[in-house]
UniProtKB/TrEMBL annotation:
Homotrimer. Its EC number is 4.6.1.12. It catalyses: 4-CDP-2-C-methyl-D-erythritol 2-phosphate = 2-C-methyl-D-erythritol 2,4-cyclic diphosphate + CMP. A divalent metal cation binds at residues 17, 19, 51. This is 2-C-methyl-D-erythritol 2,4-cyclodiphosphate synthase. Pfam families: YgbB. One of its GO terms (molecular function) is 2-C-methyl-D-erythritol 2,4-cyclodiphosphate synthase activity. It is an enzyme of class 4 (lyase). The lineage of its organism: Bacteria, Pseudomonadati, Bacteroidota, Bacteroidia, Bacteroidales. Its cofactor is a divalent metal cation. Transmembrane segments: none annotated. Pathway: Isoprenoid biosynthesis; isopentenyl diphosphate biosynthesis via DXP pathway; isopentenyl diphosphate from 1-deoxy-D-xylulose 5-phosphate: step 4/6. The record marks 43, 142 as: Transition state stabilizer. It comes from Falsiporphyromonas endometrii.
Amino acid sequence: MSKHFSECPFRIGYGYDVHQLEEGLPLWLGGIKITHTHGLKGHSDADVAIHALCDAILGACALGDIGKHFPPSDEKYKGIDSKILLKEVIMMIHQEGYKIGNADLTIAAEKPKLLPHIDNMRECLSNIMDCLIDQISIKATTTEKLGFTGREEGISASAIVLIYKANED
C-alpha cells in the first residue's frame, strides 16, 4: 500500500462529468445502453455516469482523475467501454487497500426518462464494483428546461463515494 495515505479508515470522493448529445450515437448511461435518438459524444463510449463515478473513486484515494489514467490522447481508449475503465479504477483502490462503502449518483437529463433504467444501472455498477446493489444509489433529474441539459444539448452526472479501509486477512 502507498505510504501517502493517512490512517483514516474512511475517505470520500466527488466526481462530475458532462458530455454533449449527438444524433445517431448510442446512449450509454450507468453501464447500460438506453434506446434514444441521441447518444453522448466522447473519446470513449462517453458514459457520463461512469465517468463521474470513476472520478469520485479516484478522488477519494487522491489518485487524480480519469483523464490522468485514461487520457483521451491515447488511441487505445478510443471508443472503449467505460465499464472497463471503472473495473480498472476499482482494482486501483483495492491495491491501495480500500473498498467501496457506497456510491450516490445523480444524472441530469431532460430526455430520455431514466427512471425505468435505474435498477438495471444499479445492478450493472454493483457487479463491476464488486459490491451489493444497495450500496449504489442513482437518481435522475431534469434541469426544468434550463441550461445545456434543459435544451437537450448534453447530459451531466455527479457522484459521491465513500470508501473504507479493507480489513487485511
